[in-house]
Amino acid sequence: MGKGKHVPIRTCIFCGRKMAKYELLRLVLDDEKRPIWDRKKCLPGRGAYVCPRDECLRKLETQKGRRRLAKAFRGRLARENPELFKVLIEAAGGQDKYDQNQDL
């Protein structure tokens, strides 16, 4: 009568989809308050989660997306990271992984 292992659920800051933590890309702020990708999901500090779908990743480049990211970090976002979008696209494999039900 054992229960299954608990899987943490997180929400994408752009589309609002709830997914398992391991399916999302976690962002944290570095020492210069720039968002960076937390590959291993273990860096300290508040995290913001983005699903690997192209439409959500592309929102990082928009003004509205930057405001949403700043809100997720409770206004602590001081600088932008222009390389972040490219890194996350590579991490997601440049395709819509959510719809294909694949893990990162």
UniProtKB/TrEMBL annotation:
<dbReference type="InterPro" id="IPR007393">
    <property type="entry name" value="YlxR_dom"/>
</dbReference>
<dbReference type="InterPro" id="IPR037465">
    <property type="entry name" value="YlxR"/>
</dbReference>
<feature type="domain" description="YlxR">
    <location>
        <begin position="10"/>
        <end position="78"/>
    </location>
</feature>
<protein>
    <submittedName>
        <fullName>Putative nucleic-acid-binding protein implicated in transcription termination</fullName>
    </submittedName>
</protein>
<dbReference type="Pfam" id="PF04296">
    <property type="entry name" value="YlxR"/>
</dbReference>
<dbReference type="InterPro" id="IPR035931">
    <property type="entry name" value="YlxR-like_sf"/>
</dbReference>
